[in-house]
Amino acid sequence: MKLKSVLLEILIVLLMAGTFYITAFFEGGLGKSTDFIIGAASGALLGFYFWYWGAKRDLKLKEHPNAEKYIQIWQYLMLFMAISSFAILVLYVKEIISDPKITCVMYLIWMMIVGNYRANIEVNQETISVYFDDEEINKKAKRFLGKIQVFGALITIILVLILPELFNYFSIIIYFISLLALPYFYARKLHKKKFA
C-alpha cells in the first residue's frame, strides 16, 4: 500500500475519532432538541465508513481493472465526509451554526457524489443479485440505482431546504427507502421481460 493511501486512511480515522469524541463528550452534553440529528449523523458516518471498506474489499477481491483508481476515489470521498462531519460538528457545539439542515444537506451531497460514480466504484451487487442472479440485469439495475441516488438526493436537498423541519426527516426516509425498493422493482421488471 502506498504511503499516500496509508496517510489518507490515518487522517480519515483521526477525523472520525474526533467526531465521535466531540459527539459523546463535549461540555454540556447533547441537550438541545436538535442534538439527536448530530448523534444520527455520527452513526451515519460510521455506516458510510463500513460501506467504504466493503467497496474497497470488493474492488480488490474481484480484481477490478481500475481498482487502484477507484479505491483512491473512495478514499477522497470518505475524507470529504470525515472532514465535513468534523467541521460541522465543531461549529455546532460552538453554537456557530445551529440548523441541522446543514448536516442533512452535507450527507445528501455525499450520496449524490457516490451515486455518480457508483457503477464503477462499487463492485458489490448483492443488494440486487440476491434477488436476480443475472449479470446483465444487475448492471442495468445498478446504473438505475446510481441515477436514483443522484437525482433523489438533489430533490431531497431541495425539500430539506424549503420544508419545515418535521417534513425533512420524512423526505430523507423516503429517499433511503427508494434506494432499496425502486432498483428491486426495476430489476424485477427486467427479469420478467427477459425470462417471460
Descriptive account of the structure:
The chain contains seven helices and no strands. The chain has 196 residues and is mainly alpha-helical. Helix 1 (3-25) runs parallel beside helix 3 (67-93). It comes from Arcicella gelida. Keywords: Membrane, Transmembrane, Transmembrane helix.
Helix content: over 70%
- How far do the termini sit from each other? 48 Å
Query: What does the largest sheet look like?
Result: none
Structural class: mainly alpha
Radius of gyration: 18 Å
Which word captures the global form? Answer: flat
Count of DSSP H/I helices: 7
H-E order:
HHHHHHH
Q: Tell me how many strands there are.
A: 0
| Overall average residue pLDDT | 79
Beta strand %: under 5%
How would the blueprint of this fold be written?
Layout: H1 3-25, H2 35-61, H3 67-93, H4 101-121, H5 126-129, H6 135-162, H7 165-195
Can you describe this structure in just a few lines?
This protein is mostly helical and 196 residues long. The chain is 82% helix and 0% strand. Helix 1 (3-25) runs parallel beside helix 3 and helix 2 runs parallel beside helix 4 (101-121).
